[in-house]
Specification:
alpha/beta; Rossmann fold; 321 residues; two-stranded antiparallel sheet; globular
Length: 321
């Protein structure tokens, strides 16, 4: 069970992620941020609920849509912003950017620009944890678009064979890129696929942050005790496009009423209303936390803009092949 302090902390983190992602959206559209960005607005419950169940030293693998996951795991918001801006002060000295960002200070091994690319890495990390025998676990985030990749099936199979401490968390936002999941999948119940590999699995409401926490926490504790891998399918929705600015390409693949319905199922608003009803928050505190989150984001953006770009002479430094 979450303590009152943990609940408030979770709410604050969700607000911070929402404010950060919205600000990144604005600045990307202004041309301030190089490359591409994939935002997780609407999926904060999956990120924060899952990471709240982890301990220091547990590893995290994420996707091209990983800003929120890293912040939920404790990444410094200033260093994250600087990395997105390609600055020397960034988490990866401006070399990783949005698609390949990592934060080893918080054992966030990294994002991955390849769909499903993090799954086998997570199994390897969990295998190392099993050998170390210190009770650490690995959590691997991926989307519904990854479950038809060979890496998904190969990774679940090996994780089960080796009984490694990995929790596979699928943020099922119904679309892989611009394609509806049920258009390309004969079996749309992702959790049921775990049966083929003798892995326990659950399908839950990913916009209920407390339910996400409770479900992931059980899986984490099971893995710590040597119980092996688990799969958790979290039903959620990304409010924005697959990649920021895609509407400029004329892409209109999601019905307006579908987007509107999911926005009413906002994970932050749902949790906020619950905390208000429980008396853990009042309206002034809600406004204060949101204002504080916005200030943190603005300070992070200022830090990123004022930071120096990497020296071109060091372009090949810190790279490994």
């Amino acid at each position: 069970m979450l303590s009152d302090k943990q609940k408030i902390s979770i709410y604050q983190r969700m607000c911070q992620i929402r404010k950060f992602e919205n600000r990144i959206s604005e600045n990307f559209r202004k041309g301030d941020i190089p490359g591409f960005v994939h935002l997780s607005v609407g999926q904060e419950g999956v990120s924060v609920g899952s990471c709240a169940a982890l301990s220091e030293g547990d590893c995290l693998l994420t996707t091209h849509r990983g800003h929120g996951d890293l912040l939920a795991k404790g990444a410094d918001i200033n260093l994250l912003a600087a990395e997105l801006y390609g600055k020397e002060t960034g988490l990866n000295k401006g070399r990783g950017g949005s698609l390949h960002i990592s934060d080893m200070a918080h054992t966030s091994i990294g994002a991955n620009g390849i769909v499903g690319g993090g799954l086998p890495i997570a199994v390897g990390a969990a295998l190392a944890q099993k050998f170390n025998n210190k009770g650490a676990v690995t959590i691997c985030f991926f989307g519904d678009g990854a479950v038809n990749q060979g890496t998904f099936h190969e990774s679940l199979n090996l994780a089960s064979v080796w009984q490694v401490p990995v929790i596979f968390v699928c943020a099922n936002n119904l679309y892989g890129g611009t394609t509806k999941f049920d258009y390309v999948s004969a079996v749309t119940d992702i959790a049921s696929r775990a049966t083929s590999y003798a892995i326990p699995a659950e399908k839950i409401d990913g916009n209920d942050v407390e339910l996400v926490y409770e479900t992931v926490f059980k899986a984490v504790e099971n893995a710590r005790k040597g119980g092996g891998p688990s799969l958790i399918e979290c039903l959620t929705y990304r409010w924005k496009g697959h990649t920021e600015g895609e509407e400029a390409w004329g892409l209109t693949y999601r019905p307006d009423d579908e987007i509107a319905a999911w926005k009413k199922n906002d994970p932050i608003l749902r949790f906020e209303e619950k905390l208000l009803a429980e008396g853990l928050l009042n309206e002034n505190q809600v406004a204060g936390f949101k204002n504080e989150a916005q200030q943190q984001v603005e300070a992070a953006i200022d830090f990123a803009k004022q930071s120096a770009s990497p020296d071109p002479e060091t372009a090949l430094d810190y790279l490994f092949a």
